[in-house]
């Protein structure tokens, strides 16, 4: 598994910590980005749509039924994050939640399911609501992704 060459140092450190001390990395201190403090994170691994390489990204999540939900916010930027573009091309993913590993299929939530998940995620990480305003002004709806275990 690899990481994107332009990945920020704090993300690289989070990935490295997830691989060496997953229980510690699971609860990530979001205060450095304006969040409320420790929030639950998982490690998402997708296949690069151009390279075919396995790429990992730590993301805030919430459980949803037997699956997990994540937000493709990219901080409200006008473009989707690369990991989201990769899972659009190949929705088969792997995730690590603390010490547990899962294979899954990703899908974009819509309608009432999306609204419920968004509300759940905004309670965990309130900056998502500000990201949505910024993204909407740029003409982008932030995808809400559900990973269903297989």
Question: What's the SSE blueprint?
Answer:
Elements: H1 9-20, H2 22-26, E1 27-29, E2 38-47, E3 54-60, E4 62-64, E5 67-71, H3 82-89, E6 92-97, E7 100-108, H4 111-124, H5 127-137, E8 144-149
Antiparallel strand pairs: 1-2, 2-3, 2-6, 4-5, 5-8, 6-7, 7-8
Characterization of the model:
- With 150 residues, this protein is an alpha+beta fold.
- The chain has one domain: Pnp Oxidase, Chain A (Roll), CATH 2.30.110.
- It is built from five helices and eight strands; from the N terminus they run ααβββββαββααβ.
- The longest helix has 14 residues.
- The radius of gyration is 14 Å and the shape is globular.
Chain-averaged pLDDT = 93
Q: What global shape is seen?
A: globular
By helix and strand content, what is the structural category? alpha+beta
Q: What is the class in the CATH system?
A: Mainly Beta
User: What is the count of helical runs?
Assistant: 5
Largest sheet: 8 strands, antiparallel
> Uncertain segments of ≥5 residues (pLDDT<50)?
1-5
Domain tally: 1
CATH topology name:
Pnp Oxidase, Chain A
Beta-strand share of residues: 25-35%
Shape-level CATH architecture = Roll
Give the total of beta strands: 8
- CATH superfamily assignment? Electron Transport, Fmn-binding Protein, Chain A
């Amino acid at each position: 598994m690899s990481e994107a060459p332009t990945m920020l140092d704090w993300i690289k450190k989070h990935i490295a910590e997830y691989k060496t001390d997953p229980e510690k990395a699971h609860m990530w201190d979001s205060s450095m980005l304006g969040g409320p403090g420790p929030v639950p994170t998982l490690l998402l691994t997708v296949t690069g749509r151009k390279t075919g390489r396995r790429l990992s990204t730590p993301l805030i999540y919430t459980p949803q039924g037997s699956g997990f939900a994540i937000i493709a916010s990219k901080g409200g930027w006008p473009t989707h994050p690369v990991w989201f573009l990769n899972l659009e091309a190949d929705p088969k993913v792997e995730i690590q939640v603390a010490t547990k590993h899962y294979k899954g299929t990703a899908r974009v939530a819509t309608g009432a399911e999306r609204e419920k998940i968004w509300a759940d995620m905004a309670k965990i990480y309130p900056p998502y609501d500000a990201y949505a305003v910024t993204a909407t002004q740029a003409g982008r709806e932030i995808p809400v992704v559900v990973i269903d275990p297989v």
